[in-house]
Amino acid sequence: xxVAAGLTEPGPRDGNPKADTPMPSLPRLIAFDADxxxxxxxxxxxxxxxxxxxAYLPRSKQFAMVTSRFDWIDAARDSCGCERSRTGIxxxxxxxxxxxxxCHRDEELVLNxxxxxxxxxxxxxxxxxxxxxxxxxLRLEVECLEAEIRDLGLRWKARATPRHTFGIRWGKA
Length: 173
Fold this sequence. Notes:
Number of strands: 9
Strand order of the largest sheet: 1-9-4-3-2-6-7-8-5
Oligomer: single chain
Shape: globular
Distance between the termini: 26 Å
Number of domains: 1
Strand content: 35-45%
Structural class: mainly beta
Largest sheet: 9 strands, antiparallel
Number of helices: 2
Radius of gyration: 16 Å
């Protein structure tokens, strides 16, 4: 499977036997403004996203993706219990989707999510920008911000805890 920056996507798709914990730990979160979206972004930091697990439905103005979310909250509580969870994110009122640094047809490519931000242009409209590692990004043009995430029930032991190098200057995508 081709992957971004040497990442592999762990979990149920690989037949991992640990993927049997059915209870989600993250409550449903909803975002209607940039502050709400920052909470969602913090919970999705270092999520792995397979391009084939993204979908845009232009007629109904919907965008959704399924991620392998790293559970930072549980990791802070229990250094040995680092887990990932299958987590869905949904946006309504999406007018357009743009990709930078990857092609939406490269369905097996795995992206590492670093951040999500909302930039209001003509209130309440704006852009939602997903920042991935390796300079990749996804931008949603939205009528207004309407987003939600929820765990989908599958959890498994993470292969590793994500690490970040500090002191590197990051440019705005």
